[in-house]
């Protein structure tokens, strides 16, 4: 049955971050800068990883994919949020809401699975350095990347399948700046207790289990590093620290939002801003500031581009 056959609501009002014009304008300025930095930083990493032959390895292939996903992820919510901050009537259609919901969980699901693959990649690199190129070859890497996309798609389809047939007969105000399951379910004109349990299981518990597995794998790596030389240990610790920082920034807010009953708490919007808008901007900085290879590749690209635009003597 089509949702329009039993739903009086054809659109939703996004209440956003604030109803005060001065605050909305301030948020617009701040998050415009954040969005610009996010797009620039993540696309820059994609270009660097693609253009520098020294970075054509499994680890940087995965890093480039993560940066591309962060770029896509920020584009799902940030442009709409920026437009609504200046708009006096931030309404999103029912179809637009479901579309945003689909891509939000599609890209988010891929990121979670990709971070798990990246942890496995570092585990193999440290525990089996002599067999690393054999175990994590291009074919295996491609299969794992494809599996991440399939996993994200299945996860997102489940969200849409559980939401699309819900009856919405009013009210139609979503207390957020984008469409997401916790706020949307609360507007349904039916008992959603069982549905909330399914959503918490699909979102929160899966995310929590992946996070615990990742923490366990990095803990095992840290224990394993005690037998390595100081130089090898220092390099591995630097990489693992970057991965752990990104994992924490992504997983902890998701667990806070989804691994609990869908009730409203004062920190909900701040946490949503953190992992949808701010975290995609921080990831490039986290990976580049502690990564000498990426910094050298960035300098090389800068010199190359500077040389192209430098005035030539006749």
From TrEMBL:
The keyword Transmembrane helix applies. Keywords: Cell membrane, G-protein coupled receptor, Membrane, Olfaction, Receptor, Sensory transduction, Transducer, Transmembrane, Transmembrane helix. The chain crosses the membrane at residues 25-48, 60-82, 102-120, 140-162, 205-225, 237-258, 270-289. It is found in: Cell membrane. One of its GO terms (cellular component) is plasma membrane. GO terms for molecular function: G protein-coupled receptor activity; olfactory receptor activity. Gene3D superfamilies: Rhodopsin 7-helix transmembrane proteins. Pfam families: 7tm_4. The keyword Nucleotide-binding does not apply. Residues 41-287 form the G-protein coupled receptors family 1 profile domain. It is a multi-pass membrane protein. Its main location: membrane. InterPro entries: GPCR_Rhodpsn (IPR000276), GPCR_Rhodpsn_7TM (IPR017452), Olfact_rcpt (IPR000725), Olfactory_Receptors (IPR050427). Belongs to the G-protein coupled receptor 1 family. Putative odorant or sperm cell receptor. This is Olfactory receptor 4D5. It comes from Erinaceus europaeus. The gene is LOC103118760.
């Amino acid at each position: 049955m089509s949702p329009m056959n039993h739903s009086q609501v054809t659109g939703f009002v996004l209440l956003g971050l604030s109803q005060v014009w001065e605050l909305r304008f301030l948020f617009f300025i701040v998050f415009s800068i954040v969005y610009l930095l996010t797009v620039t930083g993540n696309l820059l990493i994609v270009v660097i990883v693609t253009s520098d032959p020294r970075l054509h390895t499994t680890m940087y292939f995965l890093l480039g994919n993560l940066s591309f996903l962060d770029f896509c992820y920020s584009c799902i919510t940030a442009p709409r949020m920026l437009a609504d901050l200046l708009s006096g009537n931030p309404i999103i259609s029912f179809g637009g809401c479901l579309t945003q919901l689909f891509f939000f969980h599609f890209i988010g699901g891929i990121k979670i699975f990709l971070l798990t693959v990246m942890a496995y990649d570092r585990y193999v690199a440290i525990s089996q350095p002599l067999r690393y190129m054999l175990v994590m070859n291009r074919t295996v890497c491609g299969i794992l990347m494809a599996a991440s996309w399939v996993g994200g798609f299945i996860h997102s389809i489940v969200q849409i399948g559980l939401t699309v047939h819900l009856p919405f007969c009013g009210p139609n105000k979503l207390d957020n700046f984008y469409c997401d399951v916790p706020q949307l379910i609360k507007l349904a004109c039916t008992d959603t207790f069982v549905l909330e349990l399914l959503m918490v299981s699909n979102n929160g518990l899966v995310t929590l289990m992946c996070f615990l597995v990742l923490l366990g794998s990095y803990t095992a790596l840290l224990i394993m590093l005690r037998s390595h030389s100081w130089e090898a240990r220092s390099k591995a610790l630097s990489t693992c620290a970057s991965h752990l920082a990104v994992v924490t920034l992504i997983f902890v807010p998701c667990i806070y939002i989804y691994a609990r009953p869908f009730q409203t708490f004062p920190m909900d919007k701040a946490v949503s801003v953190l992992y949808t808008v701010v975290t995609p901007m921080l990831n490039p900085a986290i990976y580049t500031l502690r990564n000498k290879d990426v910094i050298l590749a960035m300098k090389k690209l800068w010199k190359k581009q500077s040389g192209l635009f430098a005035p030539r003597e006749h």
